[in-house]
Amino acid sequence: MAEKKILLAEDDEMLASLLKFRLxxxxxxxxxxxxxxxxxxxxxxxxADIIISDIMxxxxxxxxxxxxxxxxxxxxxxxxxxxxxxxxxxVLNAFEMGADDFVSKPVSPSELLVRVGKxxxxxxx
Length: 125
What we know:
Elements: E1 5-9, H1 13-25, E2 29-33, H2 36-45, E3 50-54, H3 62-72, E4 79-84, H4 88-97, E5 101-105, H5 109-124
Parallel strand pairs: 1-2, 1-3, 3-4, 4-5
């Protein structure tokens, strides 16, 4: 079976490198985008099996990413949104736009791995 591709959209370099390391150890191929512009460029040229995105990013928020993916690209790739706790309205907006899951920061890399695996298994049916 081919390695599943994850697009990780996160502007915090420390968190991104930690998550990238854990996801790659979990057997995934991870591409990292530092801001919304890089996310759009990636999505216009290739496809990920799952997208993990911070809700607050320069140029293009996680909510705008979900909206772009669902409406402009008409793409149903699963999206996991990450956000600091206490940002409930943003999280609800993301779900309304079509996000599939949510994890609050600080993110547990182990929990994220479980959620990624779960979404990918659901997608396989």
